[in-house]
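thought: user wants a sequence for this fold. calling inverse folding tool.
action: design(structure=
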């Protein structure tokens, strides 16, 4: 069971998040200021930190720096009621996994936590793939073989059968694939299924929603950066391409990326390096 540390000076928010995350299978602890939060972080092992941007005794970014200094691999999600690009750029430069704005939406919080924990589980710093759970599939390790437990049903219409035939044809190759479809028709399910039928099935499957990336953060999220690459880059950051090494990277809503990032992405896809 993953353990999450919540740091927020609003005790009602702490208790609300605690009850919600406990119901969804996470172990939690909370602290009502930055100093208590850092003390709790040092005294126990946590898989993720949820931290408010504005605390009574510290700024959330100060807590973020301390956490990253002690355990750089632990993802930190910043909670803020002050949504602006400057805040986002600042916390991401200092190593935050992501940020989320108040009022908090339960599904958004849960999805972000799941994605963050998937990233840490497939990070090269870990010795093995712990697993991934999302709305389409669950991958379990059993006797060193990946066992796919499907949580969705496959239709029997001629169109679906044709689509699965195409999936099985393309999956064994290393071609780049474009998946078209209206919102909600299951593009990620198709991407995941291609991954399952491929020789990469025992490697990471990473899904990235390009529509959520700002122009300032998109390139760093995709390609990563090294310490000192820009002001505030105090640690190395693996990009999604590096995290998905040997597996599959699904770029959802790729057309929403800034044009200059699309140009860089095109070059990477063409040259495959």
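)
observation: tool returned 273 residues.
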């Amino acid at each position: 069971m993953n353990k999450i540390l919540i740091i927020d000076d609003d005790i009602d928010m702490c208790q609300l998040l605690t009850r919600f995350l406990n119901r969804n299978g996470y172990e939690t602890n909370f602290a009502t200021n930055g100093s208590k939060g850092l003390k709790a972080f040092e005294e126990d092992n946590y898989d993720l930190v949820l931290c408010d941007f504005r605390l009574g005794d510290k700024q959330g970014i100060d807590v973020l720096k301390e956490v990253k200094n002690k355990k750089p691999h632990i993802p930190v999600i910043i909670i803020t009621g002050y949504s602006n690009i400057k805040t986002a750029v600042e916390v991401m430069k200092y190593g935050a996994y992501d940020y989320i704005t108040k009022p908090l939406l339960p599904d958004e919080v849960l999805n972000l936590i799941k994605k963050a924990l998937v990233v840490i589980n497939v990070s090269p710093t870990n010795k093995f793939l712990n697993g991934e759970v999302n709305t389409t599939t669950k991958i379990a390790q059993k006797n060193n073989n990946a066992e796919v437990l499907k949580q969705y049903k496959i239709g029997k219409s001629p169109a679906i059968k044709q689509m699965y035939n195409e999936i099985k044809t393309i999956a064994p190759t290393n071609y780049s694939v474009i998946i078209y479809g209206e919102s909600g028709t299951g593009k990620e399910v198709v991407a995941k299924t291609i991954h399952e039928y491929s020789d990469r099935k025992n490697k990471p499957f990473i899904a990235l929603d390009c529509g959520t990336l700002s122009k300032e953060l998109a390139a760093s999220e995709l390609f990563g950066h090294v310490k000192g690459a820009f002001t505030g880059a105090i640690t190395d950051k693996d990009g999604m391409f590096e995290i998905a090494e040997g597996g599959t990277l699904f770029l959802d809503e790729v057309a929403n990326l800034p044009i200059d990032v699309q140009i860089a992405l095109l070059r990477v896809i063409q040259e495959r390096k």
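thought: summarizing for user.
answer: Here is the designed sequence. Residues 122-151 have pLDDT under 50 and may be disordered.
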